[in-house]
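Trying the structure run again after the queue cleared.
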Amino acid sequence: METQLSWDESRAQDIIASKTGLEGPLLPILHELQETFGYVDARAVGLIAGALNVSRAEVFGTLSFYKDFKRQKPLGRTIKLCRAEACQARGAEDLAERFEQATGCRIDGGFHGGVEVETVYCLGNCALGPNALYDGEIFGALTDEALAALHARAAREGAAR
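Done. Tokens:
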């Protein structure tokens, strides 16, 4: 994973300016801000609104609508666990329940021990479910052991940041 920068208004303005010429620039701006800083700082809302000549409410509405956009600096690392129908058919719900019991980490319950496990719906690897996404890599055919190992890796890597 690329090291993320601390919030820098000048860098954020550069990102916004680099995307304003695109058709439908709001989502690309939000994505690049998140990729650069690990979240979209509240101060970016006014910067984006001004640059795109839209209301702050429109920017905030888009930012808050999409679950993948974070509005505060992450407290650790995130594992995204697919719980869509294909993964459910391959045991994702039972896997999730056993994981929660074994670790005490509640899925969609925020950070626990420096790791957040959140639900997503479809990672596009349906034939090899259940699946998880971590640090841009898809992990398929998850077992209890594989998910526990992934969780331990995320905890180690989060502590090393």
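The longest strand covers residues 77-82. Worth checking whether this holds up in the mutant runs.
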